[in-house]
Amino acid sequence: RKEVEQDPGPFNVPEGATVAFNCTYSNSASQSFFWYRQDCRKEPKLLMSVYSSGNEDGRFTAQLNRASQYISLLIRDSKLSDSATYLCVVSMDSSYKLIFGSGTRLLVRP
Amino acid sequence: EPEVTQTPSHQVTQMGQEVILRCVPISNHLYFYWYRQILGQKVEFLVSFYNNEISEKSEIFDDQFSVERPDGSNFTLKIRSTKLEDSAMYFCASRVLGGTKNYGYTFGSGTRLTVV
Known about the structure:
The complex is a heterodimer. Chain A is mostly beta strands. Chain A contains no helices and 11 strands. In chain A, the strands form 2 sheets. In chain A, strands 2, 4, 5, 9, 10 and 11 form a 6-stranded mixed sheet that branches. Chain A has a 5-stranded antiparallel sheet with strand order 1-3-8-7-6, with no helix packed on it. The N and C termini of chain A lie far apart (37 Å). In chain B, 0% of the residues lie in helices and 50% in strands. Chain B has strands at residues 5-7, 10-13, 19-24, 31-37, 43-50, 53-57, 65-68, 75-79, 88-95, 105-107, 111-115. In chain B, strands 2, 4, 5, 6, 9, 10 and 11 form a 7-stranded mixed sheet that branches. At the A-B interface, β4, β5 and β10 of A face β4, β5 and β9 of B.
């Protein structure tokens, strides 16, 4: 079983749409969770950390369900500039190494 | 905003040659990392480095790989005898001690290594 699993997509949505990405992780000892964004051939960039209580940053909302080992990202009012690959990332605080999912590709069309 | 700088941005090398990828981490960061991403695949952890020694390495990081912090500012990844399957984007990252938000990770823009 993969450590972090994501639907590869692509998700092709019109501008203004709401889109949701899901992610599952296999190691129940994982302690920290993140969503990163990666543009083509660029470095991963932190989008947001994910907290157990759920958290929001503008148009982006992240949720964590530790019991189900499930993480989600909701993007509201999609912009053309949101087109990218979204990476689900988990880590353990004892190690600090980041374990990446393969990413979900989002294409926002005009 | 402080950056992690990687050079070169693109390196082409012949199979069997040695290659050194260079990184200049952020000056007050104490933890250093190399990750790689084969085209179309996920980002994978290679090695972490702290206090002038390797703190953790993955199965990928075999005897062909080594890391060094030769002069207190640069952090290098050496691949001793490159193979075709080493072709990938290599990302350096550094982290501040006790970072909170995403552990304080900052990634460099990467070196694209092409082995021919």
